[in-house]
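Most newcomers find our protein records easier to grasp once they have seen one. Nothing more is needed to start thinking about how sequence determines fold. Here is such a record, shown just as it appears in the course material:
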Amino acid sequence: MREGRTVSGDPGGLEWACRTGSQQNPRAATSGVQGSGWGVPAYEPLGGRLVVEQVYDHHGNVGMNTTPLPVFDAWEHAYYLHYRNVRPDYVEKLWGTVNWDDVARRFADATSQAG
């Protein structure tokens, strides 16, 4: 993400980048967590880019020095009651619950500290 990009659904915006993934897809990362865990689109300051991380089973496998933006819960307790074992349908609905103002604040904070 280059400086000056906005949080929006337009190409180049943070929401667009989180939804589509520049190199990795957040939907696939969250849906594909083996067992239980989280999908995490995050800002990586060294490269000045968005990355997608998978955190599984309470392990500390989050990239060092990244700032999580939205975090998607892929533990069964989060979706099984309504979606049974169809995690991808649950993940698709998560996008409607994202507080993009909070994501924008987290992104702005992360990019201002990266300088």
